[in-house]
Amino acid sequence: MEGEDGLENSKSLLDSLRDGGFIFYVRHGEATVGEDQPNLNFQNCFTQRNLSEMGRSQAIYYGEILRYMRIPISYPIITSPFCRTIETVQLAFGSGNVKADPFWVEIYKLSGNLVSEERKRTLDNLQSLLEIQPEEGRNKVIIAHSFPKGIGLGQISDMETIVVKPLGQGKGFKEIARLSLADLYDLWRFGV
């Protein structure tokens, strides 16, 4: 976002985000090293990877930067039922603004060994969800998981935001931007 064109582009993107109409698909904050347990239980955070201290800081910063940029958000925030995604939402947007949706576990499962029919069904459902336009003048936030390389929205870094423009049911969606936390800061700094 450097140079005069970068400044104009960031201003234009920020103005568009302030107008609403987008879906922000965000990967949760940095999680602890390790793996989710075979006996994974969504009500027991000890059976799964959780946010690291860095991940907690990332989540808090994410919520702050969106508020500073005056980006209108639709509540509640949609999230996967994993503890790390729920905690990301709570730290970024407040504990009363969480709506866990079991569908997002299916995105997590894409990294495993799925039969092609199950993978296709999950990706078709994702397509349908990303075609739904948010309420007028607001942006919808979904905090969930990364995708395998070349599938869905592709690999996503910790707290990276994929900005999606829904085109309406059955009409698809368009990926507008991929923004890291540093990109969001630059967008705010250059776009205000």
Task: Describe, in plain words, how this protein is organized in 3D.
The chain is α/β, with parallel strands linked by helices and 192 residues long. The protein has one domain (3-191): 3-Layer(aba) Sandwich (Rossmann fold), CATH 3.40.50.1240. Helices cover 40% and strands 18% of the residues. It is built from six helices and six strands. It has a six-stranded mixed beta sheet, sandwiched between helices. A hairpin with a 6-residue loop joins strand 5 and strand 6. Helix 2 (53-68) runs parallel beside helix 3. The longest helix is centred in the N-terminal third of the chain and has 17 residues, at 3-19. It is globular and about 45 Å long. The two termini are 14 Å apart.
Provide key terms for this protein.
single chain, about 190 residues, alpha/beta, Rossmann fold, 6-stranded mixed sheet, 6 helices, 6 strands, about 20% strand
Entry summary:
The chain is α/β, with parallel strands linked by helices. It has helices at 3-19, 53-68, 83-93, 103-109, 116-130, 181-191, and strands at residues 23-27, 73-79, 98-100, 139-144, 161-166, 173-179.
